[in-house]
Design a protein that fits this description.
With 670 residues, the protein is α+β, with helices and mostly antiparallel strands. It contains 19 helices and 24 strands. It is elongated. Pfam families: DUF229.
Length: 670
């Protein structure tokens, strides 16, 4: 008899389990809209123990902080910007702290240097040396001319921006290259005459660019610089800044012209009909020059120049100061491009940028793009963090940035094959670092206050290189009113000084699908695998709530998952995940044969618990390969009123009120 009853009971349990899963399967397989489950799905008859690894933040322990799992930050925009983890498990092993850059170990120590006032100075042990300087200047982008050899003494300034120095002492010789900014007095007077009697109230533009640094990589490798920008200079970092093409030209052409390379006249040098870029492109520095600005443009690598590697380059010198000439010579003389003799090249580069701001009192526009340390190495740029942060701090301290829009940015993220093959690596490539700062006095002024407020609003909205072009032009023609929200459907180029619509999509912003990082909501109950994942996450949420109330178990009853009202997940679009590389030499045709797997996704669930009638809305970050879920307790919403359910705890611990049902309320609200 006992054995028969055992078999009957076992049969009843199996039948009941199959019946429950049958109802569950029917619920999601017959749903017409897989974006949401339109009616509650009862929890399967499984234990409440979670089979996922759980990371919890947002506890009410004095260390509460926002996390990537914030429910409120994901659901308010048409473009849901990915919230990336700086220590993401997929990519963090690619990064390490680089060894210091030691130029003086591979080269004889430079006999001379330029002091803080850019005056020629011999090191003490070579103080008696006799030195000469030979200037060299641009003929075109591929050749240069040399001047006469002249003597140069301690404390003198160099005769031109670029010079070859040769010194002799006791039969020994040393030669090296030096760069500094020699003030163009005639050009300065010409600009002053052209602007006489007109308003000179435009802001300076101080624009430092870096090659191949995603926002996450910039933060990893240059933390002191980021700390200065955000906490001292007050820079706004654009979290939704999305590239629009492959490589540096596709980053800077939209910024500097408002157009794509394909939209502009042909400039690719392998074609006989190609034009020089300055003949074909309406560069924004021309607008600044016409408005009385002294201009400068410089890159640190002549052999891979943005407008000279694949494109035809400039017929005429593009700006008043232009550094390509120096690096053409430096790449011939120095085998290690990271160094100019015993001096790290980036120090010379930063000094040149500083001197440009020091030499002139008229409005200044400077764009300097640096690539040598970051273009081919994922970590090496970290060696310049101290120098870069010190440079910016010195510039601010001495007042050189008091009237300047300061932009520090990168063209795109790293494109190294192994990193790019990961889910996070693909996203990081498309989300480079971009920061802007207005001078404090200006952003507190009548005309700067609104623009600054709008910039801060726009930091988490979808922005692109196209938007930087009108943002720069507004510096020249500052509108009287920045209140009107721009219509994203009418223009892909929207000024950051005005509110960018929350509803903006990649299509409206001119971002092709395979470059678009905006995440799309998909139903997460449309397959058995998705459903199992959703219930596993739901159980993890309930377990986390129970763990939080465990310390008050004498007052608060443990909860169990009752049902899921809906579950959806934020995932990248198919084009992004399939992107592998480009098929053509110009980077226009995407190769969509990639097989990158999604490694993480945000899930948003609405679930009910028992006892009681609590409903919770929760957004979590689920790491698929690790089977780990990040849950932010501070971001769990309780949309239905809990009334008297937590009366036994609410005065003692208000934070737990959302999670507690007192024992004497069980049954009263079920």
């Amino acid at each position: 008899m006992g054995g028969s009853w055992f078999r009957v009971r076992q049969c009843l349990i199996i039948c009941l389990t199959l019946f429950t899963f049958g109802i569950l399967f029917h619920s999601y397989s017959t749903s017409q809209d897989t974006s949401f489950v339109s009616h509650p799905v009862a929890a399967p008859l499984v234990g409440e123990k979670s089979d996922l690894n759980i990371t919890v933040v947002g506890r009410d322990d004095g260390s509460r902080r926002n996390s990537s799992a914030s429910a409120h930050s994901l659901d308010k925009h048409s473009c849901n910007i990915p919230k990336l983890d700086i220590n993401g498990k997929e990519v963090i092993d690619f990064f390490r702290k680089p060894s210091p850059l030691t130029c003086d170990k591979t080269s004889e120590k430079n006999w001379a240097y330029l002091d803080d006032e850019a005056k020629f100075t011999l090191i003490p042990e070579k103080a008696g040396a006799k030195c000469t300087a030979i200037s060299f200047a641009r003929i075109n982008d591929n050749s240069l001319s040399r001047g006469q050899r002249i003597e140069i003494s301690q404390g003198e300034r160099l005769p031109s921006d670029f010079s070859t120095i040769r010194c002799n002492l006791e039969g020994k010789t040393w030669s090296g290259l030096m760069m500094n900014v020699v003030r163009l007095e005639k050009r300065e007077e010409e600009l002053k005459r052209a602007k006489r009697g007109e308003d000179w109230s435009g802001l300076d533009v101080y624009f430092l660019g870096f090659d191949s640094l995603s926002q996450m990589s910039f933060r990893r490798t240059l933390p002191k610089t980021v700390e200065f920008l955000e906490n001292e200079l007050g820079s706004v970092v654009l979290n939704g800044y999305n590239i629009v093409g492959d490589g540096t030209p596709q980053a800077f052409i939209p910024i500097l012209t408002g157009s794509t390379e394909e939209e502009l006249p042909l400039t690719r040098k392998r074609f006989k009909t190609a034009k020089y870029v300055d003949e074909a492109y309406p560069f924004v520095w021309k607008n600044f020059s016409q408005s009385g600005y002294i201009t400068g443009y410089g890159e640190d690598a002549a052999n891979i120049g943005t407008f000279t590697y694949r494109l035809k380059g400039f017929r005429d010198q593009p700006t008043d100061h232009y550094t390509r000439t120096f690096f053409q010579e430096a790449e011939k003389v120095h085998k290690d491009w990271k160094c100019v003799g015993s001096e790290p090249l980036h120090q010379s580069w930063l000094r040149y940028a500083k001197e440009f701001m020091d030499r002139y009192t008229i409005p200044r526009f400077l764009l300097m793009h640096y690539s040598i340390l970051s273009h081919d190495d994922i970590n090496l740029v970290g060696v310049m963090d101290d120098d870069l942060s010190s440079h910016l701090r010195l510039m601010a301290k001495k007042g050189a940035l008091d009237n300047a829009l300061v932009i520090v940015m990168a063209d795109h993220g790293h494109r190294f094959a192994k990193l790019r093959e990961t889910h996070q690596g693909q996203l990081e490539e498309r989300l480079p670092f971009f920061s802007l700062a207005l001078p404090k006095e200006f952003r507190e002024s009548e005309r700067g206050r609104e623009a600054w407020a709008n910039l801060k609003i726009n930091k988490d909205r979808l922005t692109t290189p196209f938007d930087i072009h009108p943002t720069l032009l507004h510096i020249l023609h500052w509108p009287a009113d920045f209140k009107t929200e721009q219509d994203a459907t009418n223009s892909r180029s929207l000024s950051l000084w005005q509110p960018i619509p929350q509803s903006r999509s990649c299509a409206q912003a001119g971002v092709a699908p395979h470059w678009c990082t905006c995440l799309n909501w998909q139903g997460a109950m449309a397959s058995q695998e998705d459903t199992e994942t959703s219930f596993a996450i739901a159980r993890a949420i309930v377990k986390t709530i129970n763990d939080e109330t465990e310390k008050e178990r004498k007052s608060c009853a443990p909860l169990a998952l009752k049902e899921i009202h809906y579950s959806k997940k934020l995932v990248p679009n198919e084009g992004l995940m399939k992107y592998k590389n480009v098929k053509d030499a110009d980077g226009f045709v995407p190769d969509l044969s990639g097989t990158t797997k999604t490694a993480f996704a945000h899930y948003q669930l609405k679930l009910a618990t028992t006892p009681g009638r609590a409903i919770y809305e929760v957004t979590v970050l689920y790491h698929i390969t690790e089977k780990r879920v990040e849950i932010d307790l501070a971001a769990i919403s309780h949309p239905n009123a809990y009334g008297q359910d937590p009366h036994c705890i609410i005065d003692r611990n208000y934070f737990l009120a959302s999670f507690c049902i007192c024992y004497d309320r069980i049954g009263a609200t079920d």
